[in-house]
Amino acid sequence: MERIDDALFQENERVAPNSSERQVWHAGDLPLSSGITLPDVKVAFQTWGKLTGNKDNAILVCHALSGDSNAAGWWERLIGPGKAIDTNSFFVIGTNALGGCQGTTGPASDAPDGNPYRMRFPFVTVQDMVKLQHRLVTYLGIKRLHAVIGGSMGGMQALEYSVSNPGSVRKVWMTASALTHSAMQIGFNEVARQAIMRDPRWQGGNYSPENPPVDGLAVARMVGHLSYLSEASFEQKFGRNPQAPHQEVAGLQDQFQVESYLNYQGDKFTHRFDPNSLLYLTKAIDCYHCKSLSGSDSEYLFTSFSSDWLYPSWQSQRALDLALQTGNIAKHCIIDVPWGHDSFLLDQGEQANHVRCFVNR
Hints:
Blueprint: H1 4-8, E1 23-31, E2 37-48, E3 58-62, H2 71-74, E4 79-80, E5 85-86, E6 91-95, H3 126-139, E7 145-151, H4 153-164, E8 169-175, H5 183-197, H6 214-228, H7 231-237, H8 257-269, H9 275-287, E9 299-305, H10 313-325, E10 330-335, H11 343-346, H12 350-360
Parallel strand pairs: 3-6, 3-7, 4-5, 7-8, 8-9, 9-10
Antiparallel strand pairs: 1-2, 2-6
């Protein structure tokens, strides 16, 4: 069996969206929080399992920043036959978020004039992402979801779904996430954005598809990896080991293993993600702020991780406090594993047990 600590340093390898499984639905024009209407919006989604006759077994999965519609791929330890989110019992829906770059309308999509939006794409919010998801759920004939779940950015969407659509979801699981970003979290995202925008090839966002700002995007991803993992994980995996065996790192041309790893992951990311999507999505979550759960009748499960210094447990505790203040049934579980923020994608033990009990209760 693959060791979790080995998997941790494979950038949470996940199966890419399968074109034969991914569906793209034309959702029509979408009014945004800004007052602008985005025309002819498309949403990419995938499903697993079957709906019951009364369609009360559906679970919507919201992805993290760099995820996509293939929830059973990037969350393979939790979603599937016999797993915590059992696709033998539940109808699971994974969507690509508005503003993304894996089939749903975003900055790289064509505008009505036939040219990519690029920086003409309007600013979108977490509320806008949720509005599009709710429209898809309604199209599928589902009046009330059994659950909405998500981690990190996906956790914000899951939470917002219950706020924007009170009465439409029975249970919400938010993991490794927050009601709103702290100054440090905004700071990390701003460094990533500046890395892209200061790449000369960015060209004010109107870069050529044949010559995108891959250097800036790679650096942005490296910054992300540093925040997603824990110091203990880096130390255990790499320490001060040189990339070349038996060779001392004594100059600029020599590399430590951790340097090689970050460069590799940064370069790989440029082949599957649009630089402008990273700008839009990070700004959307930086601006998100859930101040009240008033009106929601959902039950909540919040999970956090002791080693997650990017989304520390006190933020999930604040979410719990907010839910209890409005009279909702809610629980917060702190999970002690050493893998940092990415623990929510990797833990198949305690987190899975909490989720299994929560969705089946």
